[in-house]
Amino acid sequence: MAVASNVMELYKNLTRLTNYGRMDLKRSLLMIVNISEAKANLSKLIDMVYHGEKVVIAKNNLPIADLVIHKPTGKRKLGLLEGKFAVPENLMEEDKDIEALFYGGNA
Asked: Which end of the chain, N or C, is less packed with Cβ atoms under 10 Å?
């Protein structure tokens, strides 16, 4: 629980310092948190990452995952298969083989 209290204290200090503009977020510290502590304080850790803190989640004190801000990918490009794929005319017609698989026997 000592580490969890340290997380809370660091969170309070980070919030206080960033609210008054006294902390340069580019020079933030690396925080390593075990999985059980991350579960208990996930929303606080996410808020810390949002404010520039670097958080690493560890299992048995071995780094497993980095908690980072989501960076969305670019927009989807529509029409990538235009001219490369033709929709068959009989797409909506019944197929005897498929009906036999669903309903059994010779449909």
From this structure: N
**Global pTM?**
0.46
* 13-33 pLDDT, tens digit each: 666 545 444 444 444 578 899
The domain defined by 2-67 folds into: YefM-like fold (3.40.1620)
The lowest-confidence range among 19-23, 39-43, 71-75, 99-103 is 19-23
CB-based contact 29:53 (threshold 8 Å): yes
Instruction: Provide DSSP, 43-97.
Output: HHHHHHHHTT-EEEEEETTEEEEEE----PPPPPPTTTTTTT----TTTTS--HH
- Residue 34: its H or E element: strand 30-34
The tokens of 62 are what?
A: 């071995």
